[in-house]
Amino acid sequence: MVKDISMFGDRCPRCGKGPMVTDNSTGEMFCGNCGFVVTERIEETGPEWRAFSKEEHEDRSRAGVPTSLAMHDMGLATIIGPVDKDASGKPLSASMKSTIERLRTWDSRSQVHEPVDRNFRQAFSELDRLKDKLAVGDAVIEKAAYVYRKALEKGLVRGRSISALVAAALYAACRDTETPRTLKDVANASNIKKKDVARCYRLLIRELDLKMPVVDPVKCVARIASKAGLTEKTKRKALEILKKAEEGKISAGKDPMGLAAAALYVACVMNGENKTQKDVAEAAGVTEVTIRNRYKGLKTHLKL
Length: 304
Description:
Sequence repeats lie at residues 125-208, 219-300. Zn(2+) binds at residues 12, 15, 31, 34. Strand 2 and strand 3 (37-39) form a beta hairpin. Helix 11 (277-284) crosses helix 12. The longest helix has 20 residues, at 115-134. The protein has a three-stranded antiparallel β-sheet, with no helix packed on it. With 304 residues, it is mainly α. It starts with 19 loop residues before the first strand and ends with a helix. The protein has three domains: 10-59, N-terminal domain of TfIIb, CATH 2.20.25; 113-206, Cyclin A, domain 1, CATH 1.10.472.10; 215-300, Cyclin-like (Cyclin A, domain 1, Orthogonal Bundle), CATH 1.10.472.10. It is 54% helix and 4% strand.
């Protein structure tokens, strides 16, 4: 029975002489004089981990990692702890130590025993690498993992490259969350031909019946402007031009990256910023011809 120890103060409630002693390993609180146990289990107020620096102490939280679709076991697996002590905190005997060690080994081996688990582990380590390379958020990665799990469930991975399907799932997630990453960006980051990623992407769209929103050129402006080193004034002007283009229905069916690049080039010309078509084209990852064609269209329709 756990008693409220605040009423006892520093002295033993039975003999009233001995000081109260706390055993941190067993969680008992008892009298140092007569040995009377006041409480068997006191609450642990400190953290469950050790910190060796100020940063570690601030970084670590009391809870574990949250569940995530981007982990092969969704973060729900359990492990046999590394501490060789039993439930009461006593050290294990030598024979029990070796038994537990063997159990640990088999436990870790059985975690990825199924081929599906091995597939997920390989796929999600690749997804984690792409996350860092493309600098996308956790929400995008969760969506990509969800799409990949659905693809594996439908048997779309069999006979196809895991890396290509992961890249396609990530591109689909970027499109769905309106994160401005092009197919070329994803293909370059994953070291796979753009054609292969596009094929897998079309397969995912067709088989999983995904509905993708149209890419908004406005989302691409900030990225191109940042890469080309353009001013905030030019960026705002480009956003105004795109808004007018959308109202005039001339943005329909056009490549969003090319349209955003052309709008930025028009804004550069209007603000007298010294940037060539080549500079803007390289930042956007499109050709100069595309920018010229979109530039002509914008000039004609908006009467610039």
